[in-house]
Structures are given as structure tokens and as C-alpha cells.
Specification:
Length: 329
Amino acid sequence: MTPNPLPIPCLEKVPEVYDDDHEQPEGPATIGKTLETLREDGSTVKQNLALLRDWIAKHPHIRRCRTDARFLLRFLRAKKHSFLAASQTLERYLAARTLHPSWFQRLDIRDPELADLADIGFLYALKERDADGCLMALCDWGLLDPKRYTVDHSNRMHALWLEAYGEDVLAQCAGAVVIFDMQHVQLAHHSVVSLSVLRQVAHYVNNAVPIRCKALHAVNVPAGALWIVNGMLGFLNEKIRNRCSLSRDYDELAEKIDRSLLPKEHGGKEPKTEHMRAFRERCERYRDRMLALDAMEIDLNHNEPYSRHAMLDDIEGGAVGSFRKLELD
């Protein structure tokens, strides 16, 4: 049964009436502490939404953008209600969508390529959250057929997942945890991965993702794929690097996460197919809203830090930073 689609939000910079509808986070016993960490209360939300909307209205380069509370709270919560950090992330988010259309445009679960990757279980959200309410996702990266797909397809699937849950209030507040199962990575996958590609992906993750990244776990990593994991780590910022871990297998991963949340095939309660089905239903329900994001516009032909030249120059000229290298014993 196809879920009922949600209405498409307004993209006008200055709508006649701002959409203030949004949910209050609830559920986990730790939600009070989470909101304290985010520095969020009713007056802060109201004040920062007004500031961000006024900033969008006066922004010389933003042409079309969502201004509803559900959308803007993604950025404010990701940056603990720092108006400056949230506005900078929004600029770079809009810029990234423009610079990388092969990653962010047409996030449609009915697209044949995305539908195929969803059907084989390349990436899907887990049905249940952890004790703090974090959104959980599992990516079996080796299922990406290197003869048919590129890293762009992987990035599109991750963008689809992020946007499908972008308005989820618990995900906004508690953040997300991603598990990368590398068991099926083969030598042929090296043909679609390069340090340049990893640098581009990390630049987006570091600067333009409106979500709190709580942890990144790599599991079942063959020795030949360690360079991919460590290469990516080298380009991530220190805060995210410190939240990365490597596990030999799911038994070792279970020491770091609640195993019952995983698919039954990995020691959890429900089979993988049930998690995949729920993910597809979510993508279908939010399909029209995700496709509407393609109509947002920002001018990148200027000299600001989020300009076309500045962002691409940063990507191409960035150096590998120091990092905590992950090794197999």
C-alpha cells in the first residue's frame, strides 16, 4: 500500500505566512538532556526561526528556499541553535545541491537506479532508534556494482536517506548513526573510488550536512578496503573522526551499539526485508517534498566562501589532515 504523499512546502523567500508547524521531540528518557545540549527551548526556537527567516529574506544570493519550521530546525538543531553556524551550513547545503546535481537532484525512490539499490539493500534506515532516539542506518557498500554504478550513485542514496528523514524531529535532535558493512567490497570497487572522490564527499559531510553525526561504524572491513576507510577519515574533521570506529564483525560491533536494533541476519529482531520495506515507504511518503527541493536556488557566481569557485577550489586543493588510522588486528 502506497502511503499518502505529504503536501509540498512553499519555496518563496518571503511567503505571505510562515509555516510554524513542527513537532516537539519526545520519547527517549534522555530527551531532556538532549534538548539541554542543543540549548533549545520554546523562546529560543521562536527567536532563531525569526532570525533565520529574516536572513533568508535579505540574502543577496538565495533565490528560492524553504522557510518552514520543520526545514529550518534541521540546521538550527544540527548547530545547537548557533545562528551563525546554522546559516553557514544552509548556504553550503544549497551550494552543494547546485554543485553536485548527480548527488542531490531527483531523489526519487521510483527512479530505476535508486529503486534497484533500495531493492538489493544497499542502504536503508533501521526501523527502531537507539536509547537516545538516534536514527540508525545500515549501508552494505560492497553491493554497489562497479560495472553499473559509481560513487555518485552511493551519494544519491545517502542523500535520499538523509532527506527522507530530514524532518524527523528525533533525528534532528538526537542525530544519526551509520553502519558501513564492507564485507562485499572487492578489488573492482577500487575503480570507482579515489582520494579526490573521498575528499569531495568529506567536504560535504564536514560543512553542509544538516544533521548531528553521532557515530560512523565500519564493520567486516577486508584488508584491501582499509585504504578506503582510512582515506575517508583523513578528510573528515576531527570531531567526526573521533566518532568513527572499526569492528571486525557484528559481534564486536555489538559492544558499541544495541544489537537488537540490527536486522535479524545480524543478530537483531526483524529481518532485513522489513527494515527495507519501511525505508521504501518513508521515501514514497516524502517523495514529492524531496523532489520539490530541486526548485531551491542559490547564485554561486560571486566571491563569498560558498561560491562555486571557493567550494570547488577547497575540494581540489585540500590536503589530507592528520587522523587516527584504523587498523585490523
